[in-house]
Amino acid sequence: MSPIRSRQTSPSACAAARRAALYPFTNHRSMSQVQLAFTCIPRVLHRPVFPSRNKDLAVAMSKVTESSGKTSLEESVRMARGLPCVSFRYRPDDSSMEAMISPNSPKDVILPTHLLRLRSPSTSRTIQMAPLHFPIHSNVLASQCANVPPLPLPSSSNPVPLVEIEIPSPETFSIIHSHLYAHHIPGLMSDLLPINNKLLFAPGSPFDIPAIARICATSMTAADLLDCGKRIYGVYLNARMLGVRDDDLWKAISIAWTIFTGALTIHVGRRHSMP
Predict the structure, then answer these.
(1) 119 - beta bridge partners?
(2) Block means of pLDDT (10 residues each) for the chain, length 275 residues?
(3) Burial letters for 156-193: b for 16+ Cβ neighbours within 10 Å, e otherwise?
(4) Cα distances (Å, whole numbers) of residue 56 to 25, 60, 153, 249
(5) What pLDDT does 178 receive?
(6) Residue 201 and residue 210: Cα distance in Å, rounded?
(7) What does the pLDDT read at residue 21?
(8) Fewer CB near the terminus (10 Å): N or C of the chain?
(9) What is the pLDDT of residue 259?
(10) CB 169 within 8 A of CB 120
(11) What's the Cα-to-Cα distance from 143 to each of 5, 146, 222, rounded to whole Å?
């Protein structure tokens, strides 16, 4: 294989792509366009330093969820089972939205305390998608995220308050949302990388990142590979904005990104080696 000869891309073009957050991936669908993404994307996704856990806030929020200040495994399961018990509807009188708790909710679950309404940042360069909604427990956010937005307390007239947040990648928030409750590493990795988990967690086998990158490069099209990169980068931006402290999440992001950039390097190298 001949060495990669990277095409020159102006610094201003790269800076503009980085400022646009997810835009290094949005419109790159062909192999020729992959080279621009290869030039502009960061090679390492650095983990920011977040403030220490706000114990007072976590304890205050735990009183709302009827849990302890530190969520136990049993409480996490009860919270996760309570998530489907919340739905939402639009009020016909003023077109506003309200959350509702199912009257048939099991008694042993811990019901969500809030409903997150997620929008992408309002900029002239982004395509505005319909907002996404996620039920959440305030204690889950307060105990695991440093940058928790103001959360109104539930009341009898508003049992599940709506909290609107602008987030870099609403479409990938479901990955973080699931991990905050389950903390299941194989499930997290399969959400980030669309490959067989047996390659990542083979018993007694070393974790071979270069080998997995080669498998991704040969089994995925250029468009699929860039969709994978966009998904990982979106999770990274969301975790950075929310201040997620979970070590496993950041390790998974780092590993998945290393595999993605390795596979992308192979794709570009194969392109240049063609006659």
Answers:
(1) 166
(2) 40 47 52 63 89 57 49 81 83 63 85 90 62 91 86 85 91 96 91 77 69 88 87 95 95 94 84 52
(3) eeeebbbbeeebbbbbbbebbbbbbbeeebeebbebbb
(4) 40, 6, 15, 24
(5) 95
(6) 15
(7) 43
(8) C
(9) 93
(10) yes
(11) 47, 8, 39
Single-letter code of the amino acid located at 142 = A
| Spatial contact of 175 and 182, defined as CB atoms under 8 Å apart | no
Nearest to 216, CA basis, from 266, 175, 251: 266
The rounded distance, in Å, linking the Cα atoms of 168 and 163 is 16
Helix (H, G, I), strand (E, B) or coil at 128: coil
pLDDT value of residue 122: 67
The two three-digit tokens of residue 47, written as one number: 């983990």
Half-sphere exposure of 257 (CA within 13 A, CB side): 20
Residue 151 CA to its chain's centroid (Å): 21
Q: What angle is formed at CA 27 by the lines to CA 24 and CA 32, rounded to 5 degrees?
A: 85
Q: In sequence order, what are the residues at sequence separation of 6 or more whose Cβ sits closer than 8 angstroms to the Cβ of residue 227?
A: 25
Nearest residue to 170 (alpha-carbon basis) of 228, 114, 117: 117
